[in-house]
Structure formats: structure tokens, C-alpha cells
Write a structure and sequence with these properties.
single chain, 67% helix, 394 residues, 13 helices, mainly alpha
């Protein structure tokens, strides 16, 4: 593929956002469009897993985390996702940023970002978040209307999953500031994909950064609605995306590197659960994997990038081999992906509440609720995009 196709996962009006890009423009990278769409659905399933027993924060939790077989599987599912899936979105967003800035100019770029990111963020904060909270509180016997009014009266507004958009606006502003003061665009090393030694150094740097950040802000602790403990990988991957743009790195991943890092990820994967289970039985600094001076926290911080590099490189290669161009449902899913990301919280919570009184194993409920919520989000997004003005924003 040529250089343009590496930057072509953009919406029809020329705005480049991950995961917001739509299908339909010429010379698109179908593999990246399909991957972004698939990972958006994985976000829905991730939150469904939290609903039924995985660790993490979410609006509605029906099953608490436990050491049951189903609970352990859901916890591992979410821990693995967390290592890479939001980082992938930041990588893609960074990849599209330099070209968008060149094409639109500084002011056009700012207007575009405020339209395509700012409006969805405000809509979620002031509408979808209160609606989702009020919906979830009906499980506790509280009135939907009373909770909704309380939230508005007391200004209880949050970005929920659109923390990603908040962070992306911050990263984009930092990129603009860097360029405005004369900072040079990072070199793409003549178009060559980074060496495995460079990727190793980046993984070690990312792990060290995560460990240090979590000494101050453990996993689960937020600052301005952002879990800074995860931001080491987000910053590194966004910066890597900006560096990758001109060299079309995402389309030039060497097969040897993909294979090597997939093997690294597979080899590293069992280390975290093993350390979490065994560390308390050895004379080592023990504690939570969420942060602090403990072997669990140190392992978790370095485990994440080594898993992430392998999964991200592997999926980028797989999807680009599989999808040269998108047709049919994949094309529609790619166009609806960002809107699905925005609307999925109330859809998922409503789906879970609809059958919460029906007994079933947690894994069954996870599979059914997650699948139904994905289907409903897909259909609802298609309907919303037909409304006047929606397509210009999402």
C-alpha cells in the first residue's frame, strides 16, 4: 500500500480520529478500519465482563469479583484487554495527527478536533452519563427521574468512557504546543520500522514509567477523571503514532517482528497471574498489583507493554492481511464505530438490567449481554447517523 493508505482511516469530512473514523473514503486502509471497529466492540464486551465479575469500575455491577473459575477468567480477560486496547486507539490517533495538521492548518485542525471530539464529549458528560447513572440506580430501587434530577441539581457530571476523548484532546493540545514553539516533528527513521531493540527499550521505558506513576496514582485512582497510572503506555503509543505517520510504519511491520513480539507476549502472559498467586508465599515485598512497592505492582507495570506490543503488532498484521477493502457489514460497522463507543454505556446497562432477575452463570450472562448490547449499539448507531447533523459530528 502507498503512504496515503496509512493515513486514510479518516472520516468523510477529513477529520482523523480513533476510533471515530468512518468507512467510505477512497484509498482507505481497510485492515485498520476493521481492527478499530472490532476493538470498539471489544470495549463493549470489556464493560460487560466488569458487570459480571471482572475487576474495574463500571456503572452497574451484578456480580462482584471473586476467585471462582468464571470470575478469574473474566478478570484475566479484562486485564489482558487493558494492557493494549486503549493504547491501540492512542497509537492510531497519533498516526493520523500530523497529516491532519498539515492538511487543515493549525486553526482548521483545532476547529475539526473541537467539533468531532468536543461535542461528543459534552453530549456524554451532560446527557448520557446522567442517564446511565440513573438507569443503573433503578437496580437499587431508586427512581430514574429522581436520580436524574439529583445529578443535574448537584452537578454530578463525568466523562465515563469518553475519558479517552478528554485525554486525546490533551495529547493533541500538547502536540500543537510542541509544534507551535518550534519543536521538530519526530523523525520516522527514513520510513524504516523500529528495530526490535528499539521496541524493547520502549517497552522497558513504558513499564518503568507505569511503575513510577502508580506509586503516586495507583490503578483505580483518578485525576480529572483520568487514571494516570495507565498513561505511560498511552503517551508512548500516541508519540509512536505521530512518529509512524510519515514512514507508514503501521503498514510496514516486518513479519519477523510480528512473530517475535507475539512470542514474547505469549511467553510473558502467564507471568502476571503466577506472580499474583505465588508472591505472598515468598519473602518478597508483597502488596497490590495496582501500585506501590511490591513485586506484584512491579510485575504488572512491566507485563503490560510486553503483552501490548505483541498483541498490537499481531493484530495490525492480521487485519491488514485479511481486509484490503471493507464491504457489507464490516463497512457499516467501521462507519458506526465511534458512535457505538459513545452510546454503549446506557445500552449495555439497560440490556443487563432487562434480565437481571433471571438466574444464569456469570459467563453466560456476560456472553449474552455483551453480544446483545453490541447488536443493539450497531443498530442504534445506524439509525442515529441518519438524523440531520449526526454524520458531521461522528
Amino acid at each position: 500500500m502507498d503512504r496515503n493508505s496509512a493515513l486514510a482511516a479518516t472520516s468523510g469530512n477529513g477529520t482523523d480520529v480513533a476510533p471515530a473514523a468512518s468507512a467510505g473514503s477512497p484509498a482507505r486502509n481497510g485492515g485498520i478500519d476493521a481492527l478499530r471497529a472490532a476493538v470498539t466492540l471489544l470495549v463493549v464486551l470489556h464493560h460487560a465482563a466488569i458487570t459480571y465479575g471482572a475487576s474495574g469500575g463500571w456503572y452497574y455491577r451484578e456480580v462482584a469479583p471473586s476467585a471462582s473459575p468464571g470470575g478469574i477468567l473474566l478478570i484475566l480477560f479484562c486485564a489482558t484487554n487493558q494492557a493494549w486496547f486503549m493504547g491501540l486507539f492512542f497509537l492510531l490517533a497519533g498516526t493520523y495527527t500530523p497529516d491532519a495538521l498539515r492538511r487543515h492548518g493549525a486553526w482548521g485542525f483545532i476547529r475539526s478536533r473541537l467539533l468531532r471530539l468536543g461535542i461528543p464529549l459534552l453530549a456524554y458528560v451532560f446527557l448520557l452519563h446522567p442517564v446511565t447513572v440513573a438507569l443503573a440506580q433503578t437496580a437499587q430501587g431508586r427512581s430514574f427521574v429522581h436520580v436524574l434530577l439529583y445529578l443535574f441539581e448537584h452537578g454530578k457530571f463525568e466523562p465515563g468512557p469518553l475519558w479517552f476523548v478528554e485525554a486525546l484532546l490533551i495529547f493533541t493540545a500538547a502536540w500543537l504546543l510542541w509544534r507551535s514553539v518550534g519543536g521538530a516533528a519526530p523523525s520516522a527513521a527514513g520510513g524504516r520500522f523500529p528495530s526490535d531493540t528499539t521496541l524493547l527499550a520502549a517497552a522497558l521505558l513504558t513499564g518503568a514509567g507505569a511503575f513510577l506513576l502508580r506509586l503516586a496514582w495507583p490503578v483505580g485512582e483518578t485525576v480529572a477523571f483520568l487514571q494516570l497510572g495507565y498513561f505511560s503506555s498511552y503517551v508512548v503509543l500516541f508519540a509512536a503514532g505521530c512518529m509512524a505517520a510519515d514512514g507508514a510504519w503501521l503498514e510496514r511491520i516486518p513479519q519477523a517482528s510480528r512473530v517475535l513480539w507475539l512470542r514474547v507476549a505469549a511467553g510473558v502472559f502467564p507471568i502476571l497471574p503466577a506472580v499474583v498467586l505465588l508472591a505472598p508465599h515468598f519473602p518478597l515485598p508483597a502488596g497490590s498489583s495496582d501500585g506501590g512497592w511490591s513485586i506484584q505492582a512491579l510485575t504488572y507495570a512491566f507485563w503490560e507493554p510486553f503483552v501490548a506490543w505483541g498483541v498490537i503488532l499481531g493484530l495490525l498484521g492480521l487485519f491488514q492481511r485479511r481486509f484490503a477493502h471493507l464491504t457489507g457489514m464490516w463497512r457499516r460497522l467501521a462507519r458506526r464505530a465511534f458512535l457505538i463507543y459513545i452510546i454503549h454505556p446506557p445500552m449495555l446497562v439497560g440490556t443487563a438490567l432487562a434480565w437481571r432477575d433471571i438466574p444464569a452463570p456469570a459467563l453466560v450472562k456476560f456472553a449474552v449481554t455483551g453480544s446483545v448490547a453490541c447488536a443493539l449499539c450497531y443498530l442504534a448507531a445506524g439509525l442515529l447517523l441518519r438524523l440531520p447533523g449526526f454524520a458531521k459530528v461522528v
